[in-house]
Design goal:
79% helix
Amino acid sequence: MQVVVAILLALAMILFGAELFTNAVEWLGRRLGLSQGAVGSVLAALGTALPETAVPITAIILGGGSRDAQDVGIGGILGAPFLLATLGSLIMALAALLVRRRSFPALEVNPVSFQRDMAFFLVAYSLALVVGVVRLPHSKSFVPWALMALYTLFLFLTLRARDSAEASGPIHPLYLQGQAPLPMMPHIMLQLLLSLGLIIGGAHLLSSGVEQIAKWLNIPPFILSALLIPLATELPETLNSVVWIHQGKDTLAVGNITGAMVFQSTLVPAIGILLTPWRLNMDAQLTGGLTLAAAAFVFGMFRLHQALSPGVLLCASLLYWVLPLQALALRYDPHIVYWVSGALLGAMLLLTLGMRARYRSEP
């Protein structure tokens, strides 16, 4: 019971810290006179990426070098893109189907930016997986810097693609200064430090709880961390996408997910490769393979049809359930898991076909 309370407290600390950080960093950009594009693509993106970055990194650094701590860290690193490519697709598809009242609506995305994001992700994530499976000479000293260079190039191309600066929208008042129209820099920096403390403290508490639960349930720490940690820390990205789809801003919604995937396939794995032996076990290879399969399927279907359909996203999301079902198979009778997985797959396919027929029949 104490572990459950600790995990809930850790999640609250991480999410509240991310909210404080994002708010402070927006005001920092305003005070420094940065454009809205620079604030959104660099500073604000860092705010939502901190939780999923802090959890695996603190697990590795503060875990004393134990194998379980390294598994938790690598699970968090590989699990974040896995969740975004699968459950992120599911959430966007359901949001589009529930909000739109027309025939099986395709998401209206910018083809250039979407293909750029997905191409960078597939290249970077594949490179991170290869170095963990194939022991090439000097790869651990070269690949991290190559991943960092890829993200730098991605930022350059993304910022250069903005033809005009976006209008600066209203910002929520700084939490530590109430309704002041323009907060002072010391208050902004104080809120930044407090938010970082909450995020790092919550990340360490969460990673410790994951290790304890994995030992109690006799489940490999990697599997549990690859499922639990990203599910908690990716909440800001996924909820933002739901709001943007509801507002008809499909490009922002999809870019929010794909942009996070690029960050988590470049800078975060680079840190993991530098701080760990980065030897990927079978569970890690399965997670990486499922992630690449989901992303490549969505990317390939988009290239083929030049449209991002909810049906394609729903199909990609089915790959998420392979990992938890494998964890159940280690704990229970595998035959039961096979029947449950078959029933789940059939239900998802029937739901997809039913919703498609319903929306096609509506005027």
